[in-house]
Write a structure and sequence with these properties.
This protein has 140 residues and is mainly α. Helices cover 71% and strands 0% of the residues. The protein is built from five helices and no strands. Helix 2 runs antiparallel to helix 3, helix 2 runs antiparallel to helix 5 and helix 3 crosses helix 5. The two termini are 26 Å apart.
């Protein structure tokens, strides 16, 4: 079996062989995570309460920061990118919480808002990169 062979029969052989995600896949996913990130930022600014805030912030911490970093990797499959992204998201959350404990600065709302602000930059970059490539193969 050669590296460029279309094993799946769906025309994805070149993309899979090079290991780069399609531009459309990146900017659509980044766009969805950007919506979640902005929603978390707004919820933290207005100090919203409720089970929906818990679900939203959990989804944000698990997915958005880690995926924004993992999407820069030349992952072969989306499942690998998501697995690494979720692991990195969990690690970022743990490091952030440990830093707050160590510094005796326990302000989870401020930390979450700061994390959301920092996460915006790579997500916007993925969207811009995907739109600039008009959904073509992203190789860098």
């Amino acid at each position: 079996m050669s590296a460029g062979e279309d094993v799946l029969g769906d025309g994805s052989a070149g993309r899979v062989a090079r290991g780069g995600p399609s531009g459309r896949e990146l900017w659509v996913t980044a766009g969805g995570l950007l919506v979640v990130t902005v929603a978390v930022l707004i919820a933290e600014i207005v100090a919203a309460h409720g089970t929906w805030v818990l679900a939203l912030t959990t989804a944000f911490v698990l997915c958005a920061p880690g995926w924004a970093i993992a999407a820069y990797a030349r992952a072969v499959t989306a499942s690998f990118r998501w697995s690494v992204g979720i692991a990195v998201g969990i690690a970022i959350g743990i490091v952030l919480a440990q830093g707050m404990v160590l510094l005796h600065f326990w302000h989870p709302r401020a930390a979450l808002a700061g994390l959301a602000l920092v996460t915006l930059a790579p997500l916007v970059h993925h969207i811009w990169k995907g739109l600039a490539g008009n959904g073509k193969e992203v190789t860098a």
